[in-house]
Amino acid sequence: MEKYIKTKDFAELTGVSVRTLQYYDEVKVLTPAYINEQGHRFYDSDSFSSMFVILSLKDMGMTLSDIQQYLHKDSFDIRLFIREEKGRIETALSDLQLRFMRLSVLEEKVSEEQDVTPYILPLFSQLPDTGDLPKGKPASFNLKLWNTFIKELNFCAEHRLSAKDDRAGKCVQYWKKNILEANQVPEDTVKKSEEYYQQNPANTFGITQANYRYLVQLIDEYETDL
Question: pTM of the predicted model, to two decimals?
Answer without folding.
Answer: 0.43
